[in-house]
Design brief:
5-stranded mixed β-sheet
Length: 281
């Protein structure tokens, strides 16, 4: 399997080409090693850099798997290139070792951009200009972010309450992408029964990035998760039908539904979460 790794730094670009054997036990690890060696293979590369991953896994007869995320170094004695390689290995393994069909990989193309600073911020607090709103109203959400070795700053995200929203209490989740995926689309990160490989690829490709700040409005209605599909506001009749079908092993229920979602591209790793209460009059 051909693996191409491009490392881009200020005024420097290095390209590496590897070929790894096809082996169910070894190939995912070898792809990770090729990625890591491509990142650290340049004398100009130094630890403490923030790394942006952008790449694709090309498959014969299927949609390409897209890889995109940002990785900032932390205080642990672990090279930041390790986290990039681990991300590539995890996604590649889900595809290569899938239980539906043999994945014919045409190539792995990895581009890593090194940014000579630690780009990372934690969600410290969040609030809205008003807690009682009306359907169709736009509200400003303010989020206090605390960066690494920098002054805290406020990021504002305007959200609009959907016009069809019923009266009652809603939850507004301010979070990073990983937290949002676990909350509204847990099937994207879990191993569960799916119709096939293409549906698994769709699940992986819709995962959210960790360099965005998300504001998500949740309402207390049931969401039905069936295979790779997310069905918010599921009616009780549909839920009862699925309960009676023993063949639907991949069905799950969430006791909240997505009413609206907004984000701000922060160009840095965002971590943390806060939950606010919104009352619709």
């Amino acid at each position: 399997i051909p693996v191409d790794v491009t490392l881009t730094m200020p005024n420097i670009e290095k390209k590496f080409h590897f070929e790894v054997i096809e082996s169910p036990q070894l190939t995912p690890l070898l792809v990770a090693l090729a990625t890591y060696n491509g990142i650290t293979g340049s004398p100009a590369y130094g630890e403490g850099w923030t790394l942006r991953l952008d790449g694709d896994i090309e498959l014969k007869g299927h949609t390409p798997v897209h890889l995109e995320n940002l990785f900032a170094p932390n205080d642990a004695p672990i090279p930041s290139g390790f986290f990039v390689a681990n991300e590539v290995q995890g996604i590649f393994a889900r595809i290569y070792s899938n239980p539906y069909e043999r994945a014919h990989v045409d190539g792995v193309h990895i581009k890593v951009t090194a940014l000579a600073e630690r780009r990372w911020s934690m969600i410290d607090n969040a609030w809205t200009e008003k807690s009682e709103v009306t359907p169709g109203e736009t509200v400003a959400v303010k989020v206090l972010l605390r960066p690494y070795r920098g002054e805290p700053f406020i990021q504002e995200i305007p959200i609009t309450i959907p016009p069809q929203t019923a009266r009652g209490t809603l939850q507004l989740l301010i979070s990073d992408g990983e937290t949002l995926d676990r909350t509204v689309d847990p099937m994207a990160t879990m191993q569960g029964p799916l119709p096939g490989l293409e549906e698994l690829i769709k699940l992986i490709n819709r995962g959210r990035q960790n360099d965005c700040l998300y504001a998500t409005l949740l309402q207390p209605t049931t969401t039905l998760l069936v295979e790779d599909k997310v069905m918010p506001n599921a009616p009780s009749s549909e839920i009862n039908v699925l309960d009676q079908r023993q063949s639907v092993g991949g069905a799950r229920l969430l006791h909240q539904s997505l009413a609206g979602s907004w984000f701000a591209d922060m160009h840095q790793v965002i971590t943390g979460e806060r939950t606010l209460t919104i009352i619709v009059k």
